[in-house]
Amino acid sequence: MSRAESLCVRKALGTLPVAFREVLVLREIKGLPYKEISDVTSVPMGTVMSSLSRARQRLREELRAHTGKGV
Question: By Cβ atoms counted within 10 A, which residue in 37, 38, 50, 70 is the most buried?
């Protein structure tokens, strides 16, 4: 990923609600499994999974809005 793309992703991540940003970082950057994310965040695993799905969708929308490209 280029520096410009990395900066764009960071900006888009910053617009997400903290709970969404947290699960995305723990899963996609830190590589934690759902169970560990559940333990770290003290929320049920099903909530982690649904939050992650919503977070990914919101991130795609933010990136699309900022770049004009589909992700």
Answer: 37
Question: What's the distance, Cα to Cα, between the start and end of the chain in Å?
Answer: 13
Q: Confidence band (pLDDT; 50, 70, 90) for 9?
A: confident
Q: Which domain holds residue 27?
A: 3-67
What CATH number corresponds to the domain at position 34?
1.10.10.10
Taking alpha carbons only, the member of 4, 24, 3 closest to residue 15 is: 24
Residue pLDDT, tens place only, 18-30: 999 999 999 999 9
- Using CA atoms, how far apart are residues 55 and 50, in angstroms rounded to an integer? 8
Question: How many separate domains does the chain show?
Answer: 1
Looking at residue 24, its amino acid is L
